[in-house]
């Protein structure tokens, strides 16, 4: 997302999504380091209807799609689906499958680090922690007027971040085995300094002092880096929420966008009424809530961040929807969001779907993931002129 494209028409209205994907060999299902070749094909597409920007990630087995900035969730969904289609068809030209999963169920050979000075610094600093760090997330950006507002909004979001994770869990497998967790990605991420819920900050200046201090301590490569699940974006006028695993379908990415935008709009209303966020949960309860979400998803017990006790995770998801319902009503998204969340509660999370698919073998799981990632997973990549045709809206939903 370009900074100049995120003009805030109305605080808490503009939204964009960054989705990270894995590339798997079409024959073996193992991750394949073909990102550069796939992205070269994307750049040569005769039409790119999604409006997305495509990037490399730390390792050569991953690619990222950053959506155009939207104000309408239906248009966002069309654009997300089109970006996945574009990447999936280009992956097929390299005998690869595009897979949306928080971790790699079948890792391949040790993947190379992508080119770039910052990637090299990350690899040097974190060594073995990132050598095979094939994890993918779904990041949501929501426009806010300034950094002080962004930090105040993140304070309000803190109690709900574990629930956003629980709704999105989609990484039960690693190295060909069931980890027992719904989000192994989150457990992998916990190895980095400062991972988990962000601290409560009184101002943007206090936030920036802390990120600068972490850089000075040598545990992050620069002050723009953190592993918190939500933060003011270091380069956009947005709040960036990074709690979710890479989700299986465009609909589930829209669900994350809807819930996150609802949380931001609710926080803005609270701030306008003069209500600052409470400091709860404390560090220990917050860490417990994140762990429980990663362990169980929506299938077991979660940790209520305010009551500080175990409650069914599905109850927390319902409480989250109730919390943001007035904000969703304002934007006309309550019915859509209730339907999407209800589908996850009824049919299961991505982790639940993965375990059902894996009953037929791990190779079958990869094919199932590819089909859920893009409807073009099995298409012949020969004819690419019409990619995304009829999927991405042409109305001016992009923020000016």
TrEMBL record:
It is an enzyme of class 6 (ligase). Its EC number is 6.3.2.2. Signal peptide: none annotated. It catalyses: L-cysteine + L-glutamate + ATP = gamma-L-glutamyl-L-cysteine + ADP + phosphate + H(+). Residues 371-400 are annotated as: Disordered. Keywords: ATP-binding, Glycosyltransferase, Ligase, Nucleotide-binding, Transferase. GO terms for molecular function: glycosyltransferase activity; ligase activity. NCBIfam families: gshA_cyan_rel (TIGR02050), PRK13517.1-1 (NF010041). ATP-dependent carboxylate-amine ligase which exhibits weak glutamate--cysteine ligase activity. This is Putative glutamate--cysteine ligase 2.
